[in-house]
Amino acid sequence: MALDRTERQTLIQQYADGPARLRAALATVPPEAMQWRPKPGEWSAHEIVCHCADSETNSYIRIRFLVAEPSPTLMGYDQDNWARVFDSHPLPLEPALATVEAVRASTAALIRRLPDDAWGKTGTHSESGAYSADDWLRIYADHLEGHAQQIEANVAAWRAAKR
């Protein structure tokens, strides 16, 4: 279902605000909890931020393909496999966070300028099928908020485990 202009503007603002929300959540993580995992197979705050950098770079190209290319195919990826393969704990956190911020700033400027008809452009996502620019916005507007909440939940679980 297509978004109306008001809904779209609200989601664009949420999208643009995402990096600040992620950074604020990250600021609540004690250094000794940064690489702590709530359970086996769940991500640490550090891994969450590295995932966000991977996801944002994928989202950056997806919206551009959707708007500029006729009927593009957008490739999915296995985020858990990427986390295993790239083993992000030894990687520095700040460049990943800077990537999230830079990619979001660039894309926010782009999507604020898109004409209404661009939002109806569609492609095919390799995992979920038909995929429009509006679908992209719905997903990515909330993506960093969801991970900020995940980081906050990790901190709460870490504090509870310390008791």
Gross geometry: elongated
Low-pLDDT stretches: none
Number of strands: 3
Report the structural category.
mainly alpha
Order of helices and strands: HHEHHEEH
Would you tell me the overall average pLDDT? Answer: 96
The Cα radius of gyration reads 17 Å
Number of helices: 5
Ends: how far apart? 47 Å
- Portion of residues in beta strands equals 5-15%
Please give the largest β-sheet. Answer: 3 strands, mixed
Q: Order of strands side by side in the largest beta sheet? A: 1-2-3
Estimate percent helicity: 55-70%
Describe this structure in words.
With 163 residues, the chain is mainly alpha-helical. The protein has 5 helices and 3 strands. It has helices spanning 5-26, 45-68, 79-86, 93-112, 133-162; strands at 73-74, 122-125, 129-132. Strands 1-2-3 form a 3-stranded mixed β-sheet. A hairpin with a 3-residue loop joins strand 2 and strand 3. Helix 1 (5-26) packs antiparallel against helix 4, helix 1 (5-26) packs parallel to helix 5 and helix 2 packs parallel to helix 4. It is elongated, with a radius of gyration of 17 Å. The N and C termini lie far apart (47 Å). The mean pLDDT is 96.
Present the secondary structure layout.
Layout: H1 5-26, H2 45-68, E1 73-74, H3 79-86, H4 93-112, E2 122-125, E3 129-132, H5 133-162
Parallel strand pairs: 1-2
Antiparallel strand pairs: 2-3
Quick summary:
Helix content is 64%, strand content 6%.
